[in-house]
Design a protein that fits this description.
Blueprint (H helix, E strand, L loop, with lengths): L1 E2 L1 H8 L6 H11 L6 E3 L2 H14 L5 H13 L3 E3 L7 H7 L3 H13 L3 E3 L2 H7 L6 E3 L2
Parallel strand pairs: 1-4, 2-3, 4-5
Helix pairs in contact: 1-2, 1-3, 3-4, 5-6
């Protein structure tokens, strides 16, 4: 299963609806589910954690803990080819970042789960393998 940064962040941010995201991560840790993502999840997650810290949503200690815990999950990371996400970005008028998750799921023929409502709404009617967390 492919996950995006929104799912990962939902599991760790204390003010999010965490239960389902945490259950997915627990299943991964227990070997019941194998989570994968494009390598850009590292940067998206780090940036979101930094923004949350900067805005006072979490402390610097929490930020460090979140990134350490995320790294400890050993999510399988995949590189994408230059422009691989562009066709899906065009088709759905989404960012190349969002489309990278879609492209990887399409390439690996796996489900993709997101907690990003806007992304889900934009693509779910055409891509049955896109699932919304919750």
């Amino acid at each position: 299963m492919i996950l995006d940064a929104s799912v990962l962040l939902t599991a760790f941010f204390p003010d999010e609806a965490q239960a389902q995201a945490q259950a997915l991560l627990r299943d991964h840790a227990a070997g019941k589910e194998r989570l994968k993502a494009p390598a850009l999840i590292l940067f998206e997650t780090a940036n979101a954690v930094w923004q949350a810290e900067r805005r006072g949503r979490i402390s610097s200690a929490q930020a460090d803990e979140i990134l350490k815990a995320a790294a400890g999950l050993h999510i399988e990371l995949h590189d994408l080819e230059w422009g691989e996400s562009l066709p899906l970005a065009r088709q759905f008028q989404r960012s190349a970042y969002d489309a990278a998750y879609l492209a990887l799921a399409d390439r690996l023929d796996e489900e993709f789960v997101t907690a990003d409502d806007r992304l889900y709404i934009a693509v779910h009617s055409k891509l049955s393998w896109v699932k919304r967390l919750g």
